[in-house]
Structure prediction request, 975 residues.
Amino acid sequence: MERRDFIKISGAGALALGAAAAGCAPKKTASASAEEGPEQMVYRENEANGDKVSLLGFGCMRWPMIDVDGQRVIDQEAVNEMVDYAIEHGINYFDTSPAYLMGQSEKAAGIALSRHPRNKYYIATKLSNFNNATPEASIQMYRDSFEQLKTDYFDYYLLHAIGSGGVAAFEQRYVQNGMMDFLIKEKEAGRIRNLGFSFHGAPGEFDELIGLHDSGKYHWDFVQIEMNFVDWNHADGRRNANASYLYEELDKRGIPIVIMEPLLGGRLANVPEAIAAQMKEREPDKSVASWAFRFCGTQPRVLCTLSGRTNMDPLLDNVKTFTHFKPLTEEELDFLERMATQMMEYPTVNCTDCKYCMPCPWGIDIPGIFKHYNTSVTEGRYPQSQEQKDYRKLKKAYLVSYDRAIPTLRQAEHCIHCGECLSHCPQSIQIPRELQRINRYIEKLKQDTL
Amino acid sequence: MHRKIRIALAVIFWLGITLLLLDFTGALHGWLGWMAKVQFLPAVMALNVAVIVSLILLTLVFGRVYCSVICPLGVFQDGVAHLNVARKRKNKNRKPYSYSPEMKWLRYGVWALFVIALVVGVQALVALLAPYSAWGRIVQNLFQPVYLWVNNLFAAIAERANSYTFYTKEVWLRSLPTFIVAAVTLVVVIILAWRNGRTYCNTICPVGTTLSFFSRFAMFRPMIDANVCKGCKQCEHNCKASCIDVENRKIDYSRCVDCFNCIDTCKFGALKYRFAWGKKEIPGQARNEGKGQARNEGKGQARNEGKGQARNDKEAAQQGDAGRRAFITGAALAVGTAALKAQEKKVDGGFAVVLDKEVPVRDIPVTPPGSKSVKDFYRRCTACQLCVAECPNNVLRPSTDLKHFMQPEMSYERGYCRPECTRCSELCPTGAIRKITKEEKTQYHVGTARVNAELCVVEKGVECGNCARHCPAGAIMLVKDNETGYRRPVVNEEKCIGCGACENLCPARPISAITVNGRHNHIEE
Prediction:
């Protein structure tokens, strides 16, 4: 069974369908074609119930953390500030989960959001019953979310990360324990306004889940999928479905789509030099990340694009992208497809830093190791051969930065391949194998056998 | 002029050796490594005939300049003494030093003891007395941590600036007993130098005594021209070695370390560093000889000797005590068995606690690749701590075992002996660790891994195999356990080189399920 899904890094963009709009706050809908257009958040309407959802949503999985008495805790003050700014600029969709940020996310979101009128925003949270799917524990988790979020209804409620494991896992976590029946009753009672699921998995698994909708067994009010210009056509296909396929299937059925991982955990904001250069050549004044958001926002069935941030600055940039929203042209979509193809040539690990694999029972800092490796690769800071110019310098930089990023005891060589992480990774990364690959690379560096 | 040259050279040597002992990056030993290799005792242990002969010749020609220039402990004492003298000079009536006769009994007694210890192999005593070992111990234990902290401060700044020039190096106490001995050594040396200049060098130091056998006959020596000397005793009062007997116009060349302070002090130019062979007596000197000697025998000698001896006995006792105390403190060897408990995952993020590893029991100590055998290693090693200070993998530390007290041994709690590293072998000035290449290193079998099945995580139903995956010698295989069906590690003793990768990377904590035990002989020759 897998884990959850979602969000991450940044925000999203809007679209062609027209940025239609209006919603909780804004009135004018900009056909926002120009920078000089009105500063207006783009909204999408949920046709089923008329919700006007901001095309840029706020993900609560990546938040600033600080050390208090040796514990990592959410920096509530910074979160409040970001949430205030978001609401002020028209963002009205907030997505969290009882599992995020070591279980601290919902509470912090509740504190920040409850300072605003409840009708100003939509709350999305999830049933993250990976560890214990008994009816008691699942219902407890559901009830706790109300308390944490200080609300008496959820606008959007998700079955968290279903997919790999297929229908069997879905049955185990939601059907056999009676949770589906329970949630449907809750929906009838008005405590859940929209019921959906977040998906990470292969196309066949998706077909099975959507089959339940087609057969009328369950009705999915919305589905949350991972989508970005790389996963559109370049997901691995065996373990993870291409976003283009998922999108089409949902679009066909008119099911609203919420986007997670628009930036692949930040990797589409920090792309290899060569790719960044081409983006900048076209749009010198726009951030690299803005391309990824515009890609998501350009697809009309998208209701909301989630973005989570660890500080204020990306939020400012995301908001800018969506308040001066410009859908991508056909030609630009082709360009992004070419960029995606180029990106696939880099030996990076497809990790989005969602931390679902953590804590590793053996203490390994899995996302930290991948992040360090990916950053080194995309920034061209990793040595590839002894013949290379500056090999010594690059080697030292790589090894020193590795030790700085990851304490020795949490480095890749300590991975014992127990496989505990495998079922948790929404990207289906073969974590132990990738850690070993990285460690072999490091060994070659250390032993000068590269 | 002589004095200035001496000081300049001394500063160069002292800084060089001290930096060599402080350095942890391996950047300096190519430049400065020779400074350790020309130290007297290490050269003797290494049977480095060229260095030994050169040093003896140096002494035969110029006197004990070794003690004033090459020996870092000697130079350090000069520095300490200088501070005190500078302070005393403010008061014109104070006389920093005055002549005292040689303390033969103590001096040759210690020397004899030292030689016996060397022959019999009581290396702890050798290390305790030898000047270079003492300095190495002081620098590694007391100064290097400060050096590392400053480095780490730079590293923190460099990190902010995205620079890789400095990197953080873990600061840890390798052995409490050795640390205490180092601290006591430093205090004793400072007190002796502060009060009486070169007392250590002329009563305790076995190298000083050895060189004194030759310096008596040195070709060049500072000499008093009795015809010019006015007997003002300025030189005597400035002699750190207390070896100038102005009354008799004599200098004890066995103790003179050729610092040349006397030459610069003499207002009348009565002292000159000059060719001395065949000029035994300077005209006029005989005049005083009979008289002075008689007087000396009568009073000064007896008194001084008694006092000095008592003092030195006390110091010796002090050192011995510290050692004993230290052993006791360090003896505690924690043996734990708890293995890391896999933490149940409920929410995302965070880190599982990783327990520190503890030192396992090793029946035979593990000594570095490059050492022929454990016995050979411990016979030659003078415990200068140079390899301990440099080991980039935190493997080497001073032993707490009485038999090898303060001499290094290997252990793998913080790292393992990496295949590409041969740094200690390049550094070792005594030949205890012979210089080897990366390729030669694989020929040294310094230990053998053994598995404690009870601690292995496989027994708890976890697939692991990390030891096998990381063994650079390919000595570990995984075999299926018929009872449990899990794949357990087994060691091919023939292939195992004892590097400790398996032990260090074993997930069982605090005691690894696979540990390395030493081997008596490391290489077939």
Notes: The first strand of chain A starts at residue 43 and ends at 46. The longest helix of chain A spans residues 431-447. The interface with chain B takes residues 3-4, 61, 72, 98-103, 130-131, 354-356, 358-363, 365, 393, 396-397, 400-401, 403-404, 408-410, 413-420, 424, 436, 446-448 of chain A (CB under 8 Å). The mean pLDDT of chain A is 87.
